[in-house]
Amino acid sequence: MQGDVIAKKEDKGWFYTDTVKEHFFHPKNFLEDEAAYGDAYLGMVGSPACGDAMKVYLKIEKDADGLERIKDFKWKTFGCASAIAATSMLSVMVTEHGGMLLEEALKLRPQDIMLRLGGLPARKIHCSVLGDKALRSAVNDYYRKSGQIDKISLEAGRVIDHVLKITDHDIEEAVLEGADTLEKVQARTKVGTGDPSCIPEVENLIRFYKEKYFGA
After folding, report:
1. Looking at the annotation, which residues are catalytic?
2. How many angstroms separate the CA atoms of 99 and 71, rounded?
3. CATH classification of 159-214, choosing from 3.30.43.10, 1.10.10.1100, 3.40.50.1240, 2.40.260.10?
4. How far is C-alpha 182 from the geometric centre of its chain's CA atoms?
5. pTM metric for this prediction
6. Most buried of 14, 17, 22, 46 (most Cβ within 10 A)?
């Protein structure tokens, strides 16, 4: 595991901040025994077959004012140091100070997590999205089981390149993995090579996702 978090040359130090290292080596709210944890709302994202994968377990209660708060957040992941640290930090953020309101938790963005971590290497930014997506999946599970169907938010990819069937989610993932120009996104996805008329929309999406995740 240390190969992922220690620089090869001693004079370069660590790739990660002290906060990232703390949450990687001593993850908070990690779930050891799923069977013993009891009833919880479950969110899942990713697949171990193709890379990082994560499960999030939430316990949600209504406070004295009838507001829904996250009272507990446990998680398990198959992933790298950044994915572990980002999810560990997210679990702290949503449970501190008596638990975050659901509506506030749903407004959290990956850069909020990265800010608390003190930053992540650019090629690891996409790892901070895993916990965010798993959290939203678990909240959807809560809304579904509590009969609040109208509050469920589902992601549905929109086809951008109709020849190659490339969606906005494909472009989003490319940007998260470091493709910050049209050329880099095309190198990863081939978008626009099948349907050149979509290129202006692709460029708009690149700008949108760069602003959303990197503030640039």
Report:
1. 50, 127
2. 5
3. 1.10.10.1100
4. 23
5. 0.69
6. 46
